[in-house]
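S2.1 Query sequence (Helix-turn-helix transcriptional regulator)
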Amino acid sequence: MASNVNPTVRRRRLGMELRKLREDKGMTAEQVAERLLVSQSKISRLENGRRSISQRDVRDLCEVYEVEDPRLVDSLMQMAKDSRQQGWWHAFGEIPYSVYIGLETDAASLRTYEPQMVPGLLQTPEYAQALIRGALPETAPADVEKRVQVRMHRQKRLSETENNNPDVGPLRLWAVIDEAALRRHVGDPQLMVRQLEFLIEQSQQPYITVQVMPFTMGAHPGMNGQYAILEFPDASDSTVVYIEGVTSDLYLEKANDVQKYSVMYEHLRAQALNVEQTRQFISGIIEQHAAKADD
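Output structure tokens follow.
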């Protein structure tokens, strides 16, 4: 497999092309489903990129849409072939949030708000392990370790030298973190000291911006919970808002939804401590954790 083939992104691009062909033809998803003797939900999943699509599916849809340009058909067929290949994360086995990893791997920038924990891309291995064990107490030790390894591999996107997607370049990360995430004891106090020191260290990287939302700010636009906004280098790839769930995740791509979350994030950035204030604030919390570690 070519290193620059991202099956998740290929599915999204292919789905958008197929939806455009359907809309240009003036057909509804229900009408297409009736023609192909499949469910309407299948057509919808193919178009939103949440389901693998076979070359046979592409061929059948092109016939329904009366696509006459053989070059377009060949291009769509190749995208279908690429979309069924495996990304780097498949080497770790079944990953519940593999769709998100695929999007993050190809993203140019990521804006995230975390109210309860340090963002995964900024976690130390020890913090990640303690966090996963606490949040998912029934997870087998081997699966905990696998999740930690995946999390560490994802962090390569933040490095110019280790970036696993050189075609896109390092991921530009902007993280707003609630004060609660810094004070919550994940593991022992000494582990928290190392984690917060690492957070300050990472915040000094050129592609990473970290801001803290202090308790004293009171109510703010992030009170509804965690979310992330992923933007891509290719103009044809729509921005995605990702909201993590316990049993399923939510991906929002409609322009109106993306706009609302983007505006909300701008308010978060404006209300949070600036970069230098954030480092000083984290340093103060490190001292408090260190004092507890010495008790």
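The radius of gyration is 22 Å. Strands lie at 109-114, 172-178, 208-213, 227-231, 240-243, 250-252.
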